[in-house]
Design a protein that fits this description.
Elements: E1 3-8, H1 28-44, E2 49-55, H2 59-68, E3 71-73, H3 81-95, E4 101-104, H4 113-123, E5 128-132, E6 139-144, H5 158-164, E7 168-169, H6 176-179, H7 185-194, H8 198-204
Parallel strand pairs: 1-2, 1-4, 2-3, 5-7
Antiparallel strand pairs: 4-6, 5-6
Helix pairs in contact: 1-2, 1-8
């Protein structure tokens, strides 16, 4: 079974405001795009992934991610992260109603295809499952079986909210690259220590930051 991943990406000019401790206003959009490019490239290289649908209205991101092989879904709701994910999942299911769908964060620059494959294979055992982030507070991936609704609850304390909603928490070791999202300078240092993709490495070389 191969999955369709739904990846949300807000307009680059508005992305990654919490990285102000590590990157200037001028550089944060480039970092956000690089994170998304490395996330999408690694996801498409996973044996468990059929395709990736990126929900975004950002024209530059759309062009760059399309070039990597992603499908772009316009953010028709324009109402925030969870409505964007629900819309992306519905768009995917409109043409392939029996496909398994997983929401994946766009800020996983150290993502490794083999680790993502392991997570998705584990998620196959449950109707709805999620992976907590490295901080054990948020969520980086939410997966649902064919015929099930995604019901995303990303945002503050999403680990608790997804658990309360009935999703099964995936308790896996050695999948650090799937857990390590990047919101702050410390997160970026952790991702750099894991080993980021070349898009992020190129942009991060312009920062005064080290692992």
């Amino acid at each position: 079974m191969q999955w369709t991943l739904v990846v949300p990406l807000k307009p680059l000019a508005l992305a990654k405001s919490r990285l102000s401790d590590a990157a200037s206003d001028a550089l944060r959009p480039a970092l956000a795009l690089a994170f998304a490019e490395d996330t999408v490239a690694a996801a498409l290289a996973s044996a468990a992934v059929r395709d990736v649908a990126v929900v975004t209205d950002d024209a530059l991101a759309g062009r760059r991610l399309t070039a990597l092989g992603a499908r772009i879904v316009p953010d028709a709701p324009r109402a925030g992260l969870n409505p964007a994910l629900a819309h992306g999942a519905a768009t995917v299911r409109a043409s392939r109603p029996e496909t398994p769908v997983a929401a994946l964060n766009a800020d996983l620059p150290a993502l490794r295809p083999t680790e993502l494959t392991r997570v998705l294979e584990a998620a196959r055992e449950f109707p709805r499952a999620f992976l907590p982030d490295a901080a054990a507070i948020g969520t980086t991936l939410l997966a649902v079986a064919p015929g099930r609704e995604l019901l995303p609850a990303f945002g503050t304390d999403s680990r608790a909210r997804h658990r309360t909603s009935g999703a099964t928490e995936l308790r896996l070791d050695a999948v650090d690259s799937v857990r390590q999202d990047v919101d702050t300078g410390d997160d970026l240092r952790a991702a750099l220590a894991l080993g980021v993709g070349h898009h992020t490495a190129t942009v991060a070389a312009r920062l005064l930051i080290t692992p």
